[in-house]
Specification:
alpha/beta; Maf protein; six-stranded mixed sheet; 21% strand; globular; binds inosine 5'-triphosphate
């Protein structure tokens, strides 16, 4: 059992899509969440070589700056035919303009160039970090596997959602409701998205 999270926390993200999902995941627990953007916190450089390391950098920096417990997510889409790219560079592939349709098209072109046979396999990873101002840290990870879909389908969600169809489903994340993508099943069964799966582990460790 990890350290129990309560009271007020910072959600250490500047990504509006993630912020919405992280707020929705925390909502049932009566935790007051303020975002890094609302507090005017800067964005630290994500210099680690893996998702967990970058989540830790974001959570530690926000916990220190706000003197509150901080909750961060580092996540991305890993394409098997590309050796796991874009992976931790998922946000950077969308460029300054945050053009995820361009990033999805780059994935399509690069996978096509490898000659990989369909279905093109991919997975999303979410690494969550909770950091307290005294330096205590709790970390969790979630993953969901699926196929890439081109052209991208649906306009729900954010980022790479329209080009990812999770295993066992007929629709992409971009065609799913928020509840389908990252709702936490009331019967205790496994959630669908990488972030919701990581959050289930966090809830068992720090919110029970
Ligand atoms: P913060 O660091 O401020 O949280 P960011 O967008 O830079 O925001 P990351 O470095 O973790 O976040 O980049 C992850 C990228 O991967 C993100 O920009 C999304 O486009 C993509 N991604 C992560 N989770 C996703 C999801 O559930 N659906 C679609 N795309 C996702």
């Amino acid at each position: 059992m990890g350290r129990r999270l309560s009271g007020k926390i910072v959600i250490a993200t500047h990504n509006a899509g993630k912020l919405r999902e992280m707020r929705e995941l925390l909502a049932p627990y009566g935790i007051e969440a303020v975002s890094a953007g609302e507090l005017g916190l800067g964005e630290p450089d994500e210099t680690a070589s893996d998702f967990a390391g970058n989540a830790l950098i974001k959570a530690q920096s926000a916990a220190k700056a706000a003197n509150l417990p901080a909750f961060a997510d580092d996540s991305g889409l890993c394409v098997e035919a590309l050796g796991g790219a874009p992976g931790i560079l998922s946000a950077r592939w969308a460029g300054e303009a945050k053009d995820f349709y361009a990033a999805m098209d780059r994935i399509r072109r690069e996978v096509e160039a490898t000659g990989a046979k369909k279905p093109w396999r991919a997975y999303f990873i979410s690494a969550l970090a909770l950091c307290w101002p005294d330096g205590h840290v709790e970390q969790f990870e979630g993953r969901v596997d699926g196929d890439l879909v081109f052209p991208p389908m649906g306009t729900a969600g954010f980022g790479y959602d329209p080009c990812f169809r999770p295993d066992g489903h007929e629709r992409t994340f971009g065609e799913m409701t928020a509840e389908e993508k990252h709702g936490i099943p009331a019967d205790g069964s496994r959630a669908l998205s990488h972030r919701a799966r990581a959050f289930q582990a966090l809830a068992r460790g720090c919110l029970a």
